[in-house]
Amino acid sequence: SLLVTGNRQLLEIALDNIVRNAFKFSDDQTVTCTLQVQANSVTITVRDQGIGISQEDLNHIFQPFYRGENARTYSGYGIGLSLADRIIALHKGKIQVTSGLGKGSVFQITLPVTQSV
Predict the structure, then answer these.
(1) Distance CA 111, CA 59 (A)
(2) Residue 92: CA atoms inside 13 Å, Cβ hemisphere, count?
(3) Quick check: 116 pLDDT over 70?
(4) How many helical (H) and strand (E) elements, i.e. helices and strands, does the chain have?
(5) What's the whole-model pTM score?
(6) What is the DSSP letter of 35?
């Protein structure tokens, strides 16, 4: 059985922030979410075709209140990714991001699964 142990509400907030950002910065382009199960973890991948994130900004996107240069015309305060990162870390998971300006972004959220007894 597949079971991720944690606070459901917090995990929903983290995933919601990432998925909402994908839609917000994609300007009505397709957003794809996939789930991959490994022996000891589950990975949720959120892929968008949006404005992307510069390599320089990638180093800062999980800092509270940080907004990338190309994201400043969109609504928001720069709290969502910081909060998502902290929630995922609290659940012993990690977030990895790849992106390119004008090419979209890929967020991979990996969480450990609970081994059944």
Answers:
(1) 22
(2) 9
(3) no
(4) 3, 4
(5) 0.91
(6) E
pLDDT at 117 over 60: no
Residue 114: Cβ within 10 Å count = 12
Residue 109 DSSP class: E
Phi, psi of 58 (to 5 degrees): -55, -30
- Placement of tokens 């995933």 in the chain: 15
74 Cα distance to chain centroid: 17
The predicted model gives 44-59 an average pLDDT of: 94
CB neighbour list of residue 8: distance below 8 Å, 6 or more residues apart: none
Reference 108, options 17, 45, 20, 21; nearest CA is: 45
Please, what is the angle between helix 80-90 and helix 8-24, to 10°? 140
> Would you state the pLDDT for residue 9?
97
